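Lab notes, practical 5.
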Amino acid sequence: VREFDKAYLIEPFTERSEFMGKTFGLGPATYDFRLDLILNEDNGTFDEYELKPGEFVLASTLERVNIPFNVCGSILDKSSRAREGMSAFNTHFDPGFFGYPTLELVNFSKKPIRLIQGMAIIQMKFEYLAEETDLPYQGKYNDQPARPITAREGCGAWGYKEGEVAK
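Output from the prediction step:
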């Protein structure tokens, strides 16, 4: 990420830091995001949580993204978390997305995994496009607030309601 893009792309932006023995912030080819809130299947919201074996939760990040029209991003597992048995669904973020990413996390191990607000949780890989897209993301998940967001029904990928034709 070029120097002038950093503050716009990720807020707050951290060059590199450490929390609980794990690094977060800018890496050689990705950016490590930190955990904010966890939403379990009973709709409870937590800043600390014990993720049981086989359990699925939604989570939000402390960082907000503003993806320019010539960049896209993909969530990848953070290796240290994957080695504990936790996986993040590899969600893609289109050019034009802005807001706090919602993460989909699952524990594939046989032991509980402790999730704590502020811990490094996933990495995001950003890629430049050859040119700006003519179809930036304008969908139902844009401008997500600083909390996990469940699936939203009734809107298509480009923000149009089902059956509505783009104008």
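Observations recorded by the TA: Residues 6-9 form the longest helix (4 residues). The two ends are 34 Å apart (CA to CA).
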